[in-house]
Amino acid sequence: EIVSIYPVLSPPNLTPSASNRVCNALALLQCVASHPDTRTLFLNAHIPLYLYPFLNTTSKTRPFEYLRLTSLGVIGALVKVDDTDVINFLLSTEIIPLCLRTMEMGSELSKTVATFIVQKILVDDVGLAYICATAERFFAVGRVLGTMVASLTEQPSLRLLKHIIRCYLRLSDNPRACEALKNCLPDILRDMTFLNCLRVRSLLSNFISSECLS
Fold it and tell me: Which of 185, 15, 61 shows the shortest CA–CA distance to 210?
């Protein structure tokens, strides 16, 4: 079911019915990915790699957006339970660049799920060390987070903002990243533009008062 639609990904020619059919199969895979008895087998079979061509698409039509969102849901199910083996597997693949792409061009919901995945990778010490290991990786993540923050001034999303701030908070736990954030953090996070958002006030206050910004 999954590989059968590869030929219509590029050039983009995915019909709504074909998208729905594959997404139904992906929904079943999400159950497999989230269950403790099958998660490891799911990873050992490298099943997530079959989803990456869907995350690599750029068409913003509804069938493609639905396909990306459902694929992200499978990866999100993997990272929802803190498991370093899952993080190690994902870091051995191209999941970070693929999530960053979605965070830049996806719908609000896709951006939220992709940012959640990056956040959960960062929460793991292995993931934080990986992203902060090189300036290129850190600034790739920082640039996309900054772009998203700027876009939220025009199209606010409290749920998305919450995940973005949690990514920044976790990055600030790394001394080198913390130092870099002093120079590249978006001004609108410093000037308290979002402090009136009650659901993120505590998170944002903690970040603003952190050692990173002192």
Answer: 185
Under 8 Å between Cβ of 68 and 110:
yes
Q: Which of 143, 171, 147, 149 lies closest to 161, judged by CA?
A: 149
Count CB-CB contacts under 10 A for residue 80: 14
Whether the full predicted model's pTM is greater than 0.85, yes or no, is yes
Euclidean distance between CA atoms 64 and 120, whole angstroms: 25
| pLDDT tens digit sequence for 138-176 | 999 999 999 999 998 888 888 998 899 899 999 999 999
Pull the structure tokens for residue 49: 């790699």
| Most distant pair of Cα atoms in the chain: their distance | 54
Which residues have a Cβ under 8 Å from the Cβ of 184 and sit 6 or more positions away? 139, 142, 146
Count of CA atoms in the C-beta half-sphere (13 A) of 201: 5
